[in-house]
Amino acid sequence: MRGYFAVGAEGLSKRMNLGNLMRSAHAFGANFFFTVDADKALGRSPKSDTSKSPGHLPLFSWNSVDEMDLPKGCQLVGVELTDDAIDLPSFGHPLQAAYILGPERGSLSPQMLARCDHVIKIPTKFCINVATAGAIVMYDRHRVHGKHHERPLTAGAPTILREPHKHGGPISRTGRIVPGT
């Protein structure tokens, strides 16, 4: 996949949720994981992170929204049930994105929402577990950016398969094709 993505959570307090979210981020190929204003007891990887993700992707822990230091060009995407949030199935995922989820018994802070470039929601009747919500968002990103075959309109496997990518010849800096290739 092209681009990169990160997953983070603001105000987490439960070790099990942190570990499950970190494990899912690792499984879906996140490039880094982060927390903002997390409970101090969450300083190390919980036992529920059975993939031991901090050994495979960087973990950043920021004390506040103001301390967050995302890479240049990275768009912050809040995951929150608000009236004006974009439904996840209709959302165009940015190529460079950091997804931020709220705490277990609350919402993203007003400061975090103000910092977000986009706010999306999973179309559910009520809030779901933070680790489950994160996995759903990562699955949707993977489905959109993963170069998979188009889904059929009826049940079953795809009937029209995507052609494999064909690499062209080298292109010079002037934009012309290099002769002899």
Give a quick precis of the structure.
Helices cover about 20% and strands about 20% of the residues. It is built from three helices and seven strands.
Explain the overall architecture.
Residues 160-181 are annotated as: Disordered. It comes from Roseibium aestuarii. The protein is an alpha/beta fold and 181 residues long. It has one domain (4-145): SPOUT methyltransferase, trefoil knot domain (Alpha/beta knot, 3-Layer(aba) Sandwich). Helices cover 19% and strands 18% of the residues. It contains 3 helices and 7 strands. Strands 3-2-1-6-4-7-5 form a 7-stranded parallel β-sheet. Helix 1 links the parallel strand 1 (4-10) and strand 2 (32-36). Helix 1 packs parallel to helix 3 (130-145). It is globular.
Name of the CATH architecture? 3-Layer(aba) Sandwich
Biggest sheet: strands, sense, closure?
Answer: 7 strands, parallel
Class per helix and strand makeup: alpha/beta
Number of domains: 1
Widest sheet: strand order? 3-2-1-6-4-7-5
Query: On the 0-100 scale, what is the average pLDDT?
Result: 83
Domain tRNA/rRNA methyltransferase SpoU type: 7-139
Protein name: RNA methyltransferase
Region (Disordered): 160-181
Keywords: Methyltransferase, Transferase
Record the SSE blueprint.
Layout: E1 4-10, H1 15-27, E2 32-36, E3 59-62, E4 75-79, E5 86-87, E6 96-101, H2 110-115, E7 118-121, H3 130-145
Parallel strand pairs: 1-2, 1-6, 2-3, 4-6, 4-7, 5-7
